[in-house]
Design brief:
The protein is α/β, with parallel strands linked by helices. Strand 8 and strand 9 form a beta hairpin. Helix 3 packs parallel to helix 5. 43% of the residues are buried. Bound molecules: adenosine-5'-triphosphate and magnesium ion.
């Protein structure tokens, strides 16, 4: 029997727990031709939700779809390549044209880099021409096939690493009208936010802001129970409660724990406390490698802030002294940095560590 819990990739629409309201809203926005931003911490299901919305836009609205992964782009050429990858499957027979534009973008960079000239003189800016043509492809698709296109720019906060790129994108897409509708998704919510709500930025006010929160615990509980049942394994309700509470509505962490629990449960057997303890210990050990790297990358005040939150203390109050923060105000800067990077979320009394497994790992680290 195959483990029914997926935790390491975007999931199919049928595997999604809850999210009906979010999916309906996103669909409606796409249908209306309104651009949207979809902000959520890492692994909250952005890419899966976009996939579900695309499937529906294709099926019900006959729209063309293109998902552009912006993660890690550092240059305009990188961005051109990502566009090309996503746009080459657009309908209308543009595959070769897209490949050529990608080549041209790379060529522009090489020539600019070496200072050589190739036929007519190129300037470093020439990379913008192929990007512009790529970005404008939805106009051609509409003209040729009559289809509207929905484009998702996933991990869009990465464009902040390429000076002026948000302005270039805006300068094109603002003329797309109904030909192109855009979903900008990002996993560093405050960075994404700054692209659309900072008056000074080119994309200011260009999209409806949507947030993806945690899964409702009740929905997580029944989804995990159903999948155990469907695969002939039982789980004690108390164990299931412990799992769902620890997962805290974090979609990927809940599925990861469920997957580990399922693996640890014998075929046709039952997950009891002992099975749960083993599954949890195994998962923590497995995640520990990644957490250690993160832990050492943080400054000592950031670690103190995280340690306080892991122990349900407020780093912004006098409680902070218990983790070595001398003044409540010394936590402000690290808190802001950790919020910006999506390690923390919320504010004031609701401030918390996004990843419940990281929180558990930190509190165990200190209890050693
Ligand atoms: N609605 C959901 N129901 C159940 N599990 C979900 C749901 N959304 C996300 N997940 C879990 O989270 C994992 C990651 O989903 P996805 O890749 O869509 O998230 P993401 O926000 O795009 O992540 P990343 O930040 O890594 O790009 C999935 O493999 C699955 O385990
Ligand atoms: Mg994703």
């Amino acid at each position: 029997m195959l483990n029914p819990f997926v935790y390491d990739r975007p999931i199919a629409p049928a595997d999604m727990v809850a999210r009906e309201a979010e999916a309906a809203l996103l669909h409606e926005t796409i249908e209306n031709g309104t651009n949207a931003t979809l902000a959520a911490p890492r692994r909250f299901g952005k890419t899966s939700l976009i996939g579900a919305a695309f499937e529906r836009a294709d099926r019900e609205l006959g729209m063309a779809t293109a998902a552009v992964d912006c993660y890690g782009v550092l240059t305009r050429e990188d961005f051109a390549a990502r566009l090309a990858t996503a746009y080459r499957t657009l309908p209308g027979g543009f595959t070769r044209r897209v490949a050529r534009l990608n080549e041209e973008a790379t060529m522009g960079a090489q020539v600019a880099g070496t200072g050589a000239t190739l036929g007519r003189k190129r300037t470093p800016l020439s990379v913008e021409e192929p990007i512009i043509e790529l970005l404008d492809l939805p106009l051609k698709v509409l003209k040729k096939t009559g289809q509207r296109t929905v484009v998702a720019f996933d991990e869009f906060q990465s464009v902040l690493d390429v000076p002026g790129l948000d302005g270039l994108i805006r300068s094109r897409i603002q003329h797309h009208g109904k030909a192109g509708t855009y979903v900008f998704a990002g996993s560093e919510p405050s960075l994404l936010h700054s692209l659309f709500v900072d008056r000074g930025r080119p994309l200011y006010g260009q999209a409806r802001i949507m947030q993806l929160g945690r899964l409702p615990l009740r929905a997580a509980f029944s989804a995990v129970a159903d999948r155990f049942e469907a695969t002939h394994r039982e789980v004690e309700p108390r164990v299931l409660s412990r799992l769902v509470e620890l997962g805290a509505g974090h979609p990927q962490r809940t599925m990861l724990l469920a997957s580990a629990l399922w693996d640890a449960t014998p075929a046709r057997g039952e997950a009891d406390d002992e099975v749960w303890d083993a599954a949890l210990a195994g998962t923590l050990a497995w995640l520990g490698t990644e957490f250690e790297v993160m832990w050492t990358s943080w400054s000592s005040t950031e670690r103190r802030v995280l340690a306080a939150l892991a122990d349900d203390l407020s780093p912004l109050s006098k409680d902070g002294r218990r983790v070595g923060l001398k003044h409540a105000s010394s936590a402000q800067r690290p808190v802001a940095g950790l919020l910006r990077r999506g390690v923390l979320e919320g504010r004031g009394a609701d401030l918390r560590i996004v990843d419940p497994m990281l929180a558990l790992w930190i509190s165990q680290l200190r209890a050693k």
